[in-house]
Amino acid sequence: MVRRGKRQNPVTIVAVVPFVDLKKQYILHRKVLDGAIQAVCESTEFILGPEVSRFEQGFAAYLGVPETVGVASGTDALRLAAGALGIGPGDEVLLPANTFIATALAAYSLGASPVPVDIDPATYLMDLSDAKKRLTSKTRAIIPVHLYGRCHDMDAVMHFAKEHGLLVIEDACQAHGAMWRGKRAGTFGDAGCFSFYPSKNLGGFGDGGLVATADPNLAHKLKALRNYGALKKNCHESPGENSRLDSIQAAVLNVKLPFLDEWNRARFRVARRYAERLEGIGGVRMPVFDHNDEAGHVFHLFVIQCEKRDELLACLNGKGIQAGIHYPVPIHLHQAFAAFDFSRGAYPVAEKLSTEILSLPIFPEITDDQIEYVAAAVEEFYGN
Fold this sequence. Notes:
Layout: H1 22-28, H2 30-43, H3 50-63, E1 67-71, H4 74-84, E2 92-96, H5 101-108, E3 113-117, H6 128-134, E4 139-142, H7 154-164, E5 167-171, E6 179-180, E7 183-184, E8 191-195, E9 209-213, H8 216-225, E10 230-232, E11 235-236, H9 247-256, H10 260-278, E12 284-285, E13 302-306, H11 309-318, H12 348-353, E14 357-360, H13 368-381
């Protein structure tokens, strides 16, 4: 008779290094965050209340712009801004091939055509020389994405836009606080769009977004569009929708905003430590950035290029390290845009990098020991 042992439960790997640790940040600021939420609950001013106005004014002052309009998400910020600027059916909108799909959906949802542009292999940002090749008589706007927290060369973008008569809608959803020559991302173009998804450099406790602009007429349109087309109850001046930043999210953001620059500096220190620790490892390329410029790149993500990316990702995950990929599928290869008949091979840099890029854990509260654990695991994988 063969005796069988007890069935063993599968081993569950608990993350030693989470990709982002939202709980740690909450615990550090729990008392004031809980108090802010409770205050909204007690006031019962949940929709477009004083906390929203306070955040709009505070973030406008932070950015250095006269107008900001809180909306329900970063996706809505992009779409409503484009719509308020007149983007619609028949228009074409230039945007990078490597970005989150929300950038392209902003154009697509309005009946316009998203036109992917290849990217620079060093910065991962839109390549303006390739953008020039994609121009047609239908091109109306360009959406530079300050991807991963790196601010575009906005002098070059604005010159390109002026030369070709294009609207500029900045996607700053990953670049809260990033700067180009002393001016913050999201303040150069006709509109700057932000997301306050929980994991962003400035994140709420749910979805939220905002549009920044120097144009009071555009701000007026956006304030109506987000609220069923009305600035006053039952006075609907346009066919708007429901896309409002709610008061609880605004209250959380009001607590967090004073810490944003400090958190960004912490992220930059983490990025510099990763770059120093991983430099020289065969099979790995670091992101290119000025190690003395804390403002140009606020490192929402720390993205490396690496050989055997998928194998490395599996190895890291197996050691309890939550790495990720941003983004594994370029915009033109998503099934969602199959109707545009984008061809594989038309964006060679974006396609190549989509198989090589890997995002390592980064958040302001990550410890030196956690950074070392990640770096050592990468080093061990490549046999260095």
